[in-house]
C-alpha cells in the first residue's frame, strides 16, 4: 500500500536509487517478505522474463508497465555463494515478482529497473539462518551490488486499524496515535540499527525476536527476516568501524504499522551500501 502512494519514504527510496546509479551499481540483490521456500531450502529467482503478482489496494497503473530485469548472472553468483556456505539452494525459473520488491524498484529506479536478483526467505523463519544468508552474499557488495532487505519494523496486519482504508482508501489517516507496543518495538529497531555495526548488529537484530513486544509487532515472522538478512550483509568484523546505520525516513500507516527506512554504509570511498525497510 504505502509504496503505491506518495510518502517521504518513497522520496527517500528515489534518493537512494539516484545515488546508487550515480555510483555505478552493477545490480541489486533483494530479499522481500512474501516469498519463502519450504524445508531447509533457499530459492533464487531465475525467471528470465518475470511477471508481477498483483497487489491489493494499489491501482495497477502504478506498476503494470514497469519492465522488470532479472539478473541471471547475479543469480548464478548468489547460488554459488550460498552453496559454498552450506545452504541448500535451488533456482526458480517460474517465480513472478511480488510487490514487496517491485514497488521499491519502481520507486528507486523510475527510469528503468537495474539487473536484480531476488532471493527467497526460508519458511522456518529462523533469524540466524537469514542472517547467514546475508553474510554469505555480503562479498557481492565489493562487486558493486546493492543489497536490499524489504519488510517492516512494525508489521502486524491483525492489529492495524483498517477502517479508513476500507471506507476512504486512506492508509495514512492516523486518526489516533500508534499504540504503545508499536512505538516501543519501533524504538528498539531504531536503537539496534543506529547504535551497532559489525557482529553487534547481527546479535542485536536477531535478538529482537525475543523482545517482549516482538509478537505484538510481528504476528507472523515474514516481515522481520529481511532485517536479519541485512544484518548479515552489513555485520562483519570488517564493517565494525563503519558509520552506524542511518534512519533516512519513516512512514506510519493503518495507525499501527511502521515502515522505517535504514541505510547502512555509504558510497564515500567506494563503500557499498545495504538498506532495509
Ligand atoms: Fe508485505
TrEMBL record:
It comes from the Eukaryota. This is Extradiol ring-cleavage dioxygenase class III enzyme subunit B domain-containing protein. Its cofactor is Zn(2+). The lineage of its organism: Eukaryota, Fungi, Dikarya, Ascomycota, Pezizomycotina. Pfam families: LigB (PF02900). GO terms for molecular function: ferrous iron binding; oxidoreductase activity, acting on single donors with incorporation of molecular oxygen, incorporation of two atoms of oxygen; zinc ion binding. Residues 10-241 form the Extradiol ring-cleavage dioxygenase class III enzyme subunit B domain. Belongs to the DODA-type extradiol aromatic ring-opening dioxygenase family. Keywords: Metal-binding, Oxidoreductase, Zinc. InterPro entries: Extradiol_dOase_DODA, Xdiol_dOase_suB. The keyword Nuclease does not apply.
Amino acid at each position: 500500500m504505502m509504496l503505491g502512494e506518495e510518502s517521504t519514504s518513497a522520496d527517500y527510496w528515489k534518493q537512494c536509487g539516484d545515488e546508487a546509479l550515480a555510483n555505478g551499481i552493477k545490480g541489486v540483490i533483494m530479499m522481500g517478505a512474501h516469498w519463502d521456500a519450504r524445508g531447509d531450502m533457499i530459492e533464487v529467482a531465475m525467471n528470465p522474463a518475470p511477471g508481477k503478482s498483483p497487489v491489493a489496494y494499489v491501482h495497477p497503473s502504478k506498476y503494470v508497465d514497469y519492465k522488470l530485469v532479472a539478473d541471471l548472472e547475479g543469480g548464478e553468483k548468489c547460488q554459488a555463494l550460498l552453496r559454498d556456505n552450506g545452504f541448500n539452494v535451488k533456482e526458480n525459473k517460474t517465480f513472478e515478482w511480488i510487490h514487496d520488491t517491485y514497488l521499491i524498484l519502481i520507486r528507486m529506479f523510475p527510469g528503468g529497473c537495474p539487473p536484480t536478483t531476488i532471493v527467497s526467505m526460508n519458511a522456518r523463519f529462523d533469524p540466524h539462518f537469514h542472517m547467514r544468508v546475508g553474510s554469505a552474499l555480503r562479498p557481492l557488495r565489493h562487486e558493486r551490488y546493492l543489497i536490499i532487505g524489504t519488510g517492516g519494523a512494525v508489521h502486524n496486519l491483525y492489529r492495524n486499524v483498517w477502517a479508513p482504508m476500507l471506507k476512504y482508501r486512506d492508509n495514512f489517516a492516523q486518526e489516533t496515535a500508534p499504540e504503545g507496543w508499536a512505538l516501543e518495538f519501533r524504538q528498539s529497531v531504531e536503537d539496534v540499527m543506529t547504535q551497532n555495526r559489525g557482529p553487534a548488529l547481527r546479535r542485536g537484530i536477531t535478538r529482537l525476536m525475543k523482545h517482549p513486544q516482538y509478537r505484538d509487532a510481528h504476528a507472523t515472522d515474514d516481515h522481520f527476516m529481511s532485517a536479519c538478512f541485512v544484518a548479515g550483509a552489513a555485520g562483519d568484523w570488517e564493517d565494525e568501524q563503519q558509520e552506524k546505520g542511518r534512519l533516512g525516513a519513516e512512514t506510519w500507516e493503518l495507525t499501527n504499522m511502521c515502515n522505517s527506512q535504514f541505510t547502512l554504509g555509504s558510497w564515500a570511498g567506494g563503500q557499498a551500501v545495504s538498506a532495509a525497510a
